[in-house]
Write a structure and sequence with these properties.
The complex is a heterodimer of chains A (494) and B (65). Helix content of chain A is 38%, strand content 16%. With 65 residues, chain B is mainly alpha-helical. Chain B contains three helices and no strands. In chain B, 14% of the residues are buried. The chains are: A alpha+beta (494), B mainly alpha (65). At the A-B interface, strand 2, strand 15, helix 7, helix 8 and helix 9 of A face helix 1, helix 2 and helix 3 of B.
Chain lengths: 494, 65
């Protein structure tokens, strides 16, 4: 049975040092340290329970797999419940766990504001005129990609094979409304100018249907089995196939539609009608076709366009709403997601330009084609690639996405508050409030526990194996009434 | 699938929810869009990296996840 779709977004940002030594690891460390030192005492991340090499298909690759996380690098937990760290030579922020697409957008926006603040703090430290510039994109245009991952809580009882089969059609086709757009092609064995413009930043980099890898031979469905909660009850679907979005509505639709489709899979709502014949070529073909006209092969031999598959998924989702309700994604948010899903498909079908205020690839394409026409530029002009990159520039005075007329869903004051306040609806509330109120007594934190030093030996670990425990409803009063962590632990009976 | 979905997009199951701001482009709003785009392109000239070729060439990242 479908369970609440607790979810979160992890974004690896691109980083460049202008006017200085361009070492991305030290630049990322400097960026994060600048923020953490300026805003709070640093709380370390606790790696006790990290198992990124566990495979959902039931085996473990620890012996043959180097550790994915370099533990010596900067790694901080923020009072909003997020994690801010250096991963693979990129600054990365994982949002706190949230329960709806609306909350996901808000804390994703907060992550962007944290990055912007970090650039400002770093500028104060750098005295040699160097500048750290951060980009919220997924490729450098030269074949190097870095991810924007989504995570969704699933019922462990749902067979993993069913998840793989039925989420793949959505992952291959959802890029028509959540692709971030890209000038050129980075598919192995193809020339950069083979494709003038495509829907997705990431599609060129996917080479497998399913697998554990995240940095090479990337799979459409990633099998990392590291639930960060009770592994008997839950799994965490680690989604690596998406683009980082500048458009808030695109993030909202990406998370909202995926949450609904996953709930439907848990409730076994799909037959074989959407299964694809050949997902890996299909994901690239869909990305390489801004006309949205080309069809892909279905497993049963029919052909369908990405739009047709999306219309089919939407139709099933609307039926699901009637029969099961959408409480697991939030009733109101779920209804709004369905309405916007329909609007975006209708817009893409009749006139894609009409959704330029929602869809990143359409918004970016307007800039690229408009600029090329005005200046008579060829498709391979570096200026057009510069527009592509600068669309994702996190500096407010340089960012083209901020000038592209995108709709906003998050009030700026709410985004700012979310930089320091956790969501109230998940265990992130407990993590964030404790970090904010007892900074001297929390010595380490990770997704599923907090470690306190209250002056008594040994250190006290508070497990948080239930993502929906530790919410404001559960613990706000306890925290409000406890002046010290020691009092809190006594009240919790920990 | 093509036939079936073609029908449903004419009459989607749910019509009770409406979302502001996603109306199809009419000729007037098309004109407005074009004017907005012109302003936007002016602004791009102001903020775009001055040496686009160097900027694009030097934007190199290490592969991540």
């Amino acid at each position: 049975m479908a369970i609440p779709k607790v979810c979160g977004i992890e974004t690896e940002y691109g980083i460049v040092v202008r006017g200085g030594d361009n070492n991305p690891v030290s630049a990322s460390s400097l960026l994060i340290n600048a923020y953490v030192n300026a805003t709070s005492r640093k709380i370390g991340w606790d790696f006790e329970d990290e198992t990124p090499a566990n495979d959902a298909r039931g085996f473990n690759l620890d012996d043959v797999f180097p550790p994915e996380i370099e533990t010596s690098l900067v790694n901080a937990v923020l009072p909003n419940g997020a994690r801010y760290y250096v991963d693979h030579a990129h600054p990365e922020i994982s949002t706190p766990e949230v329960t709806t697409a609306a909350e996901a957008v808000r804390w994703d926006r907060a992550a962007d504001e944290i990055v912007r603040a970090s650039m400002r703090y770093a500028a104060e430290i750098l005295d040699n005129g160097a500048e750290l510039v951060v980009y919220k994109n997924n490729s450098d245009g030269k074949g190097n990609s870095y991810g924007c991952h989504e995570n969704y809580l699933l019922d462990r009882a749902t067979p993993f094979g069913r998840i793989v089969s039925h989420i793949t059609p959505h992952f291959v086709t959802r890029q028509i409304f959540c692709g971030a757009g890209k000038v050129g092609c980075e598919q192995p064995n193809r020339q950069p100018n083979d494709v003038a413009y495509q829907l997705s930043q990431r599609a060129d980099f996917f080479e497998e249907e399913v697998g554990l890898e995240t940095t090479l031979k990337r799979p459409i469905v990633n099998t990392r089995d590291e639930p960060h909660c009770d592994p008997q009850k839950y799994r965490r679907l680690h989604v690596i196939v998406g683009d980082a979005n500048m458009s808030e509505v695109a993030t909202y639709l990406k998370v909202g539609t995926t949450s609904i489709v996953l709930a439907m899979i848990e409730d076994d709502q799909f037959g074989d009608e959407f299964l694809l014949g050949n997902p890996v070529p299909a994901i690239r073909q869909v990305s390489h076709d801004p006309s949205l006209q080309r069809s892909i092969l279905m497993r049963d031999g029919r052909r369908a366009t990405a739009l047709e598959i999306q219309w089919g998924l939407l139709e099933q989702a609307c039926k699901y709403q009637q029969t099961h309700g959408l409480a697991v994604v939030g009733d109101e948010v779920g209804a709004d997601v369905l309405a916007r899903w329909e609007q975006v498909l209708a817009g893409l079908e009749t006139e894609p330009e009409s959704v330029a205020h929602w869809v990143d690839w359409v918004a970016k394409r307007r800039l690229v084609t408009g600029y090329a026409e005005r200046h008579g530029l060829d498709a391979d002009s570096p200026k057009l690639k510069a527009i592509d990159l600068q669309y994702h520039d996190m500096r407010v005075d340089r960012c083209l996405a901020l000038r592209a007329g995108l709709d906003s869903l998050v009030d700026p004051a709410d985004a700012e508050a979310a930089m320091t306040q956790p969501p109230t609806t998940t265990r992130a509330y407990f993590r964030g409030r404790c970090l904010e109120k007892y900074p001297g007594e929390v010595v380490a934190a990770n997704w599923d526990s907090l470690v306190f030093d209250v002056g008594r030996d040994p250190l006290r670990r508070v497990p948080m194996m239930e993502p929906l425990r530790g919410t404001a409803e559960h613990v706000a009063n306890l925290i409000d009434e406890s002046d010290t962590a020691s009092e809190l632990l006594d009240r919790l009976g920990a | 699938m093509a036939e079936r979905t073609h029908k449903q997009k004419q009459s989607p199951e749910r019509t009770d929810e409406t979302v502001e701001g996603a109306a199809p482009v009419t000729s007037e709003s098309g004109e407005k869009l074009k004017a907005e785009l012109d302003d936007l392109l002016d602004e791009i000239d102001e903020v775009l990296e001055t040496n686009a070729e160097d900027f694009v060439k030097s934007y190199v990242q290490k592969g991540g996840q």
